[in-house]
Amino acid sequence: MIRVVIALSFLAPLTLGGGPARAQAPAQPAAPEEPAQPQPAPEIPDPPAEPQPEPQPEPPPDPCPAYCDAMALRCPDVFLGNRATCLAACALYPAGAVDIDTLRCRLPGQDDPTPVPQPPVERPADDPRVVSPDDETWYDSHPQLDDDTSVVPPGLGAVFLPSLELGPRAPIVTVERDGQAVADGKPGRRVILEPGRYTVRLGDGPDDMQVRVPVRVVADRTTVLPVSWGALEIEVVTPSFVPFRGTYEVIDMSRREVVDLGFGADELLGEKPRVWVLAPGIYKLVKPGGTYRDRSDFATVRVLPGEYSRFVLVMNPDTGDFEGAGLVDEPVADDDGWTVDGVIGGDIALFRSDLTTSGGTEGLQLQLSGFLDLSASLRGEHYRWITRLDIEESHLRDPTTETFYSLRDRVFFHSIYIYQLVNWFGPYARAGVETSMLPRQIVLGEGERLEDDGRVVTGPASVRFADALAPMTLIEGVGGNFQAWRSREIELGLRLGIGARQQITNGLRVRLPGEGEDAPDRLVPVTNRFIEGVEATAIGSARITRYVTVTTEFDALYPFDQGQPFIFSWRNQIGLRLASFASLTYRLNLLRNPTLTLVDDVQSEHTVQLRFSITLF
Q1: At what angle do helices 83-90 and 64-74 cross, to 10 degrees?
Q2: Is the pTM of this model over 0.85?
Q3: Cα–Cα distance list, 47 to 37, 43, 44 (Å)
Q4: For residue range 337-393, what is the model confidence (pLDDT) as tens digits?
Q5: Other beta carbons within 10 Å of 527
Q6: Taking the CB of the first residue and of the last residue of the chain, which one, N or C, has fewer CB atoms within 10 A?
Q7: Which of 168, 195, 166 is nearest to 182 (CA)?
Q8: Where would I find the H helices in 13-154?
C-alpha cells in the first residue's frame, strides 16, 4: 500500500497538473480470428438464415501501458520502477488525459525550478562546433549554476555563460537566431529560450569582431558555454600613478582593425577602470587616431581565454603620450575593508650646454621635481569611501635670471563617499581642496613688457603673480550617480546634485593682453568668489557605425544666485576611421570660468589631426 500511495502522489502532477496534452499511444491491431474447421454437409435441409448482429466498435486502446513505459525510460528517478502502481494510478484518469510527447519529469510538489536529470542529449552530427548540453551526464553541472535563481518554465531551455566576476562591468550577452537578436542577458545568469539552434555573441567592438558561439538549446536543459573569451582591465594613470581619464584605442592585430576607443577612470567620480571582453589574441593600444603600424606611443598585450588580466597604461595627462605600460601581477583589490597606498618620488636634473647648435639657453640649469601620492579607501558590498592626496612639484632654475620658476605646483585633496542602492543609481557626498603651495613667477624674455601695479617691467626679468596657496579652491557636493544608458553602442553616466565652490585667491593675479595695440600685457588681481548651485557631470561615449566614435565629458556648476557666473568645462572628441592606415580626429574643448580667467566668454580650443602610416617595403 505504501508504494501505491507514493505513485499516486507523483502521477497527479505528471498527468493533470503538468499541463497534459492529448496525444495517445498508437492503437494495437486486433488479433485475427482463427478459421473454423470444415464440417460435413448435413443431411437435413438447412434452417432459414437468422439475421446477423451488427459489428460492435472496438474499444479505444489503453494509453496507460505506453505512458508507463515512457515514464520508466525517460523519468526513472520519478517512476521508481513500479509499473503495476503506475498502471493502477493511470487507470483512474479518463482515456487521453495522459501526455507522452510532453512528459515532464518533475517531482510532486517540486518548487525548485531545477529539472530532474534527463537522459543524455544526442550531439548533432552535422556541426560538431555547436555547443549542446553535456551528453556525458543527465545533470547540468557548473559551479556557478547554483548561484543563479532564474526559473526555466517547463518546455523551455536556457544558455549559460560563466561569469568572470566583473560585476556591473560585465558585457551584454546577445542571442541571435537567423541573424536577428531574440534575447539578451548577462554572464552568470541563464538566458531562457525556446528549444532550437542559436548564436550567442558577447564582447567589445563591432558585431563581427565579437566572440560568437553556435549553441543548441534543449527543453528542460541548460547549455553551458565553454569560456572562449578573456577579460582585460586597462587602468590609465599619470607618471606619478594617479588614475585619470586618458584616452586610447584598442586594435585587433589579427585583423588589423580598431576594436573601440577607451578611456581611463576617475576614482573620485566613483568610476572603475574599463574591462574589455575580447576574443583570444594579440591587441595593440595606441593613441586616438593611431594605426596598427604605429612605432611609438603603443603597447601590446595578449588576451588568453578564461583569464582576467590587469594592464596599466602610463600616459602624460597634458600631451597624451605613452610613457610606459605593462601587465600588473598584483591580485585584484578585495572589495571589502580598508586599502591604503602611498608613493613618494622625485628627480634632480643638472645640465649645461655651451653648444651653439643646441638651440638652448647657455648656462647652468637645475630642475627639481618631486611628488607624493597617498590614498585610502574603505569598500563594502554596496559602498565606497575614497580619499586621495596628491602633491606635485617641479621647478627650474633659469640661468639668465638665476632664479627658480615653477613648472608644476599642485596640491589636491579629495574625499568621496558613494553608496550603491541599485545597479543604476547611488547617492554620493564629496569634499576637496585644490591649491598651489609655493609662490610663482612669470619669466619675461628679452624685450617682453609687463605692466605690474602701474609700472612696466621689461625683460629679461621675473615678476611674481601668485603667493603661496594661491588660489585655494574648496569643493563640496552631494547628489546621485546615475548609469543613464548602457548598450553596445552608447554609454552615458550622469552625476547630479547640489554643489558649492569657495575660491580664495590669496593675492593671485592673471596676465591679460594690453588695452592698446602697443600696450604691454598687464597683471589683473582676481577676487574671492563663493558660489552655490546645481552641479552636474555627464560622461558619454557612442559608436556611430564602426567607423565613427564620439566621446564627451561635461562638468558644470549652475549658481543659485544669478549674479554669479555659470562655470563649466566640456571636452569632446570625434574619431573617423578612414582606412586601416589612416584616421581623422577632431577635438573641441570649451571652458567658461570667469572666476579664474576673468573672461566672461566661452573659450574654445580646436584640434584637427590626420594620422596615417604606410609601409613602403
Answers
A1: 130
A2: no
A3: 21, 12, 9
A4: 888 888 888 888 887 776 655 455 667 788 888 888 888 988 887 888 989 998 988
A5: 9
A6: C
A7: 195
A8: 64-74, 76-79, 83-90
User: Which residues neighbour 95 within 8 Å (Cβ) at sequence distance 6 or greater?
Assistant: 24, 60, 62, 63
Contacts of 56 (CB under 8 A, 6+ apart): none
**337 Cβ contact partners less than 8 Å away, ≥ 6 residues apart:** 378, 379
Strand partners, 185: 173
What is the rounded CA–CA span in Å between residue 384 and residue 168? 15
Amino acid identity at 156: L
Q: How far apart are CA 537 and CA 532, in angstroms?
A: 16
Q: What gap in Å lies between CA 194 and CA 175, rounded to an integer? A: 12
Locate 137 and state its grid cell: 551526464
Q: How far is CA 5 from CA 8, 68, 168, 478, in A?
A: 5, 16, 50, 65
Contact 210, 280 (CB under 8 A): no
Q: Angle formed by the axes of helices 2-12 and 83-90, to 10°?
A: 60
C-alpha dist (Å) from residue 167 to 171, 186, 187, 192: 9, 10, 9, 21
Yes or no: say if 101 and 141 are a contact pair by the CB < 8 Å rule.
no
